[in-house]
Every structure is written in structure tokens, then in C-alpha cells.
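Fill in residues.
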């Protein structure tokens, strides 16, 4: 009999089916035995009413996480996972496991310490709660690709070993590249801008690397960046409008196609306003001073506390979980950032705050070759390492801009998780290089 997935069993009531997966749990209740099979998609309960049916599971070396195949009759049962269960069982053990896993994978709650979950991720990621989180991560990437492809964007893949740092001010991982220095890419920024000159609209889903020695709950040193860049924009508000639609589509996709995961994780889904509220950086600092009597008006950036205050204000004032902060100071942004023509000390850039935490950075870029030469000179950066990048602008580039979403941080804020490492499959931080 051909194997089917656990989530397909509900449509087979009255028929015999064959499923295979991990022995999630086994409860022996006198003359009746309940076992739960877990495969890559869900859980299925099976009921053995005779000892003979579970003979294959009786040897002492057959424990939870053993790989088994179960054939049985599908019966409706409202109390069972998925509303069905298997009866009249035939069980075959494909790979016995006798050692107990590092955590109880069949408990509904995850009570283990984060360090335990991360140290044993090859096994702990099997827990339904962990798996639901990681499946939502896949949904975020799929939805990102879906909406941008539908809007005539072309997906690209850019080098992760580069000759020069992408963003001034951020630390980079240096490596030996056949006797000469190279770096792990902090961002696909240069290459996605170059490819605007080819396709006009491009996006990438890929890893980026930051050597910043942060040891916080919201930083990791390798993460998945959802990048987009496109040409023929008016200014950064064009980019913000595109980003709003991307965020709305991602959340809508999760609600429509990942309902089981959202329910399992008890996610409180936000709505994205048709017009996401925005506030200029300088006005945001004045607002913080007025509301909280804390003077941050001379600071070049917003602190995590500033972001939380602004998030609370946006929720109270606009009933919005999202807030754009625009116009960050030019000296805090990379050299390729376009200045505000009306206020040159400030930039045509933005951050999107989601529930009081920076989630997305974006903005308008410079597009004229001479402006790049001037920007590099002002930043005291040599031209030579950027010559390949500058070539694109020498031969004509339209006004353009883009954004980058941190996938793991998006999930952290969406799920209300206290640590971004717990929305990462195998996190890399200043302490962790394995698993």
C-alpha cells in the first residue's frame, strides 16, 4: 500500500491507509493502546485494541522517535488530532530508537531552556512548536517571492564572498581568499543595485553576515535577508508603498495557508493599514522628549527603548502595529543613501518598526555617477574597491531604491518570541558555531 501524509488521512474515512513517520508517543491504557505517529506535516492517532496489534513495539529497544509504518482503517473521532484515527492496525518498525531524546517532544509545551533547545536543535526542531515556527519561516520566504514575482521583479542570487565591505560602519568577517583578503557579504546591496540596471526590479532571498559583537536577544551574526530593489521611483515613499504591500501579502499568506501553525503557536496576527503611519526622525525625537521627558534629540540613531516608545505611540494614536520612521541623519546611513533635497543633513531613508522593534531598513539610493564620487570622498573611502560597482552608474541608472527585511526578526516580532535565536533554524551568534 502506498504511503500517504498524515494531513491527507482525514479524506479517507472508511478506507485503509498506510502512514509512516516517528513514534511520537505511546500510551498503554489497560487493554487499549494509543499511539501517535508524527510525519513532516502533522500528527495522527492510532488505536490498538489488541496486544497483537502492537507486538512490533513491545521489544525494550523500541521507544519514542523510532521510525514506524502503520497501516489501518480510518475512523472519524472528533477528539483525535485532525478528527480521525486509525484502527485495526498493522505496524512495522523501520528503525528502532531506544535512547530518550534530550527534551520531551510529545509534550504540548516547550519548557526547556533556550540553550537546551539550541544546543540540541537537530532533535528539538522536531517538536511541533519548533516545527511550526520554522514552517512559518518558509511561508514568509514563499510569500515574499510570490508578491514580488507577481509585480515583475526578477529573483537574483549575488556573491556572498566580496572584495570590500558593503556598509561603512558595520563590522565584516574577513577571510583568506587564495592569499588575498575577502569578506563575507553584509548585504547584497551593491549587486542588487547593479542588477536594477539589467532588470529594473530585482529581489533576493539569501544569507547575510554581520561581524558585530552584539550579544542581545534581537541580533544574530548570520540571518536571512529578504532584499528588494527597483528603479524609476519618485523617492523613498515609493519604496515604502511597495514595502507596505509586501508586508500585507506576507501576513495574508500566513493567515490563508498556515492557519494550523498560527493556531498552534497562538499568534496574534496584526493588520497592515492601507497607509502605514510615518514620522520624521527629528519629529520622533521631539515626540519622545515631549511624552517621556527623555532628551535624545542629539542622538544620531534610535535606541531600542526609543523604538518601543514609538511603537506604543503608533498603536495608541493610529491603532497600528507598524510605523515608518523616515529621514535618518545622513552621517548614520551608508554612503550610497540619497539625501533629502530639502534637508540635506537628513536622508531619503526609513526604518519600518513592527511592534516597537526595527524590522526593515530601506530608502532611496544615489543614482548619478558624480554623486557617488563625491559621497565616497566625503566618507573618506577609496574608489578602487568600488570600481565594479561604480561602472553601473557611469553608464546610466534610474532613480531607484529598495529595502531589506530580516526574516528571523519578523518572525520574532510576529510570534512574540523573546529571542531571535528561537526563530532561527541553526543560529550563529558570538558564542554559537554549532550545531
Amino acid at each position: 500500500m502506498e504511503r500517504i501524509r498524515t494531513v491527507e488521512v482525514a479524506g479517507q474515512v472508511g478506507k485503509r491507509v498506510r502512514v509512516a513517520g516517528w513514534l511520537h508517543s505511546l500510551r498503554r491504557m489497560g487493554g487499549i493502546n494509543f499511539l501517535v505517529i508524527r510525519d513532516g506535516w502533522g500528527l495522527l492517532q492510532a488505536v490498538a485494541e489488541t496486544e497483537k496489534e502492537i507486538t512490533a513495539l513491545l521489544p525494550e529497544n523500541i521507544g519514542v522517535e523510532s521510525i514506524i509504518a502503520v497501516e489501518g482503517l480510518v475512523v472519524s473521532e472528533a477528539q483525535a488530532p485532525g478528527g480521525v484515527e486509525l484502527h485495526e492496525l498493522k505496524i512495522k518498525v523501520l528503525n528502532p530508537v531506544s535512547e530518550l531524546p534530550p527534551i520531551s517532544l510529545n509534550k504540548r509545551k516547550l519548557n526547556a531552556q533556550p540553550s537546551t533547545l539550541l544546543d540540541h536543535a537537530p532533535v528539538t526542531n522536531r517538536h511541533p512548536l519548533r516545527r511550526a515556527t520554522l514552517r512559518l519561516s518558509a511561508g514568509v520566504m514563499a510569500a515574499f517571492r510570490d508578491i514580488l514575482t507577481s509585480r515583475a521583479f526578477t529573483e537574483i542570487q549575488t556573491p556572498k564572498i566580496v572584495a570590500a565591505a558593503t556598509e561603512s560602519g558595520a563590522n565584516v568577517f574577513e577571510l583568506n581568499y587564495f592569499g588575498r583578503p575577502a569578506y563575507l557579504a553584509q548585504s547584497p546591496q551593491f549587486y542588487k543595485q547593479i542588477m536594477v540596471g539589467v532588470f529594473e526590479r530585482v529581489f533576493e532571498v539569501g544569507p547575510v553576515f554581520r561581524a558585530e559583537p552584539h550579544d542581545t536577544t534581537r541580533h544574530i551574526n548570520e540571518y536571512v535577508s529578504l532584499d528588494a530593489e527597483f528603479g524609476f521611483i519618485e523617492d523613498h515613499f515609493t519604496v515604502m508603498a511597495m514595502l507596505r504591500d509586501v508586508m500585507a501579502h506576507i501576513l495574508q499568506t500566513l493567515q490563508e495557508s498556515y492557519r494550523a501553525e498560527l493556531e498552534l503557536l497562538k499568534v496574534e496576527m496584526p493588520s497592515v493599514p492601507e497607509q502605514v503611519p510615518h514620522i520624521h526622525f527629528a519629529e520622533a525625537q521631539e515626540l519622545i522628549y515631549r511624552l517621556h521627558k527623555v532628551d535624545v534629540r542629539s542622538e544620531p540613531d534610535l535606541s531600542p527603548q526609543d523604538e518601543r516608545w514609538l511603537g506604543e505611540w503608533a498603536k495608541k494614536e493610529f491603532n497600528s502595529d507598524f510605523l515608518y520612521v523616515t529621514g535618518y541623519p545622513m552621517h548614520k546611513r551608508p554612503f550610497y543613501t540619497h539625501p533629502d533635497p530639502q534637508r540635506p543633513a537628513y536622508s531619503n531613508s526609513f526604518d519600518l518598526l513592527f511592534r516597537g522593534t526595527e524590522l526593515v531598513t530601506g530608502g532611496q539610493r544615489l543614482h548619478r555617477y558624480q554623486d557617488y564620487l563625491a559621497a565616497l570622498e566625503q566618507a573618506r573611502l577609496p574608489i578602487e574597491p568600488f570600481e565594479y560597482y561604480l561602472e553601473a552608474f557611469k553608464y546610466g541608472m534610474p532613480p531607484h531604491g529598495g529595502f531589506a527585511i530580516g526574516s528571523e526578526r519578523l518572525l520574532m516580532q510576529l510570534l512574540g518570541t523573546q529571542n531571535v535565536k528561537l526563530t532561527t533554524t541553526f543560529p550563529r551568534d558570538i558564542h554559537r558555531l554549532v550545531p
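DSSP finds eleven helices and 16 strands in the chain.
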